[in-house]
Amino acid sequence: MDSSPYSTTSEIFAVGGEDYLKEGHTPTTLPERQEEILKLRRSLKPAARGAGAENTFLSGKAGQGKTAAAKAELSELEAFAEAQALDLTTVFFSCEGISSSYTLACGLCEKLGGENPNGHPMQKVLDHLWDAMNDIGGTIIIVLDEIDNLGTDDKILYSLPRARDKDYVNDDVYPSIIGISNDLQWRDNLDPAAKDSLYDDSIFFAPYDANELRDILSRRASKAFRETTLVYQNPDGEEFEISVDLDDDDDASLTECFESVDADRDDCTLVRVESDVLSDDVIPLCAAYAAQDKGSARQAIKYLRKAAAIAESEGDTRVEEEHVRTAKGEAERELIIEGMEQLTTQGHLALAAVTILELAGHSGIRTRDVYDVYKALSDHIDADQLAQRRMRDHLIELDMLSIIRARKSASGSVGGEAYTFKLRVEPSTAIDVLEAVSRFDSVDFDDLVKNWLTEQQTLG
Ligand SMILES: Nc1ncnc2c1ncn2[C@@H]1O[C@H](COP(=O)(O)OP(=O)(O)O)[C@@H](O)[C@H]1O
Ligand SMILES: [Mg+2]
């Protein structure tokens, strides 16, 4: 028997099954987004006739299948173009970490032409970009994912979609942009005159509801887990099982399964998952938790993946509701830790001050208590020192991020609201995060805690 803790056989996951619950897996069909995909197809259609696609804007909160839908539809178009020997090029560009038009233009040059003109003036970079497009020629579809990272430095978004109208590129070049944004407000903040002319079409991805999330999870589960099949119902009310062959790594295989039982996938509804390794409530619970929050498929899948991993690490052979609850707690903690890591220096200072006081045994911590520690700390690391009121705003923000709890206290001072603050995370977790912040390299937290020990403790 294979008894190593790294034994590769799993009682829960099918061989290679975890991959279906990972971020990298892209489904080829998204039945819950049929309408949105049809709209996108309409925008892309002119490209299939050798002209330019419509400039299109996809928006919706994170985890709504925007990236997956765009990827699936573009690969469909690419396959068609290849079969028809069309002169079509698609480029998928993630704007993660790109916050200026300049960096975006450089990145696109590199992607399209292989060379990054970083360092040259903007006009030169743009010339590079148009040259690269001219060299490629034909229809060019550029997907700019997470375009909201550009913030307000969005100049390039005015020239790029109109490169052809403005004669920046040759007559035989048909460029177009598919912009994708997770931030619903971002587009509203664009220059009003330009915002309407920027895109021909715009497609909104509404949050998934619990039923849709359940279906998405069920399909993933049928591939990820052992002994797990989907039970569908046809329009006559007859039930039948579909089990997907793991060797086929896409949803197209699912459609084939339907054909093999003489059913049309679009007419059938998924009624349940039959599984030896998932108890009945696991998928509905993951779906419900995610639906209550942001309706994010990413989050729902994460709950399922974590729940299964927890069950497995505990040596259980079935994933139960309890594992989902633990998974949800863990995922939430991870999110809070990420929130702590991404704070500004002022946010870190405010957090550090509360943490130090709490470790020193203080309770009912008031703004002015925090401010004393804050001042000492900001002096020490040579950071800007805010007024007490502005520092308090940072504390309130920490409360909104679920990192600390701010309570309005009864004994409010005249003319302002008084608060008490309490950590909502383990002090040791906060310290771990703070110690990793380079700005705090010279801070000895143990020392500071000793300085602020409560009187009882110093006397006792
Ligand atoms: N309708 C769907 N069917 C199957 N998987 C989906 C569906 N919608 C989203 N997903 C999956 O959920 C995750 C998040 O989707 P993604 O397209 O990255 O969201 P967005 O780009 O809107 O943030 C990905 O793993 C994706 O494959
Ligand atoms: Mg995305």
Helix content: 40-55%
Report how far apart the termini are. Answer: 58 Å
Summarize model confidence as the mean pLDDT: 89
Range of strand content: 5-15%
Structural Rg: 27 Å
> Which shape, going by the Cα principal axes?
flat
Number of helices: 17
Helix vs. strand class: alpha/beta
Q: Could you spell the SSE succession in H and E letters? A: HEHEHHEHEHEHEEHEHHHHEHHEEHHH
Instruction: List the domain count as a whole number.
Output: 3
CATH architecture of the largest domain: 3-Layer(aba) Sandwich
Output the CATH class name of the largest domain: Alpha Beta
Q: Would you identify the CATH H-level superfamily of the largest domain? A: P-loop containing nucleotide triphosphate hydrolases
Widest sheet: strand order? 2-3-4-1-5
Ligand inventory reads: adenosine-5'-diphosphate, magnesium ion
Low-confidence regions: none
CATH fold-level name of the largest domain: Rossmann fold
Largest sheet: 5 strands, parallel
Short description:
This protein has 460 residues and is α/β, with parallel strands linked by helices. It is built from 17 helices and 11 strands. The protein folds into 3 domains: 23-204, P-loop containing nucleotide triphosphate hydrolases (Rossmann fold, 3-Layer(aba) Sandwich), CATH 3.40.50; 209-334, Orthogonal Bundle (Helicase, Ruva Protein, domain 3); 343-459, Winged helix-like DNA-binding domain superfamily/Winged helix DNA-binding domain (Arc Repressor Mutant, subunit A, Orthogonal Bundle), CATH 1.10.10.10.
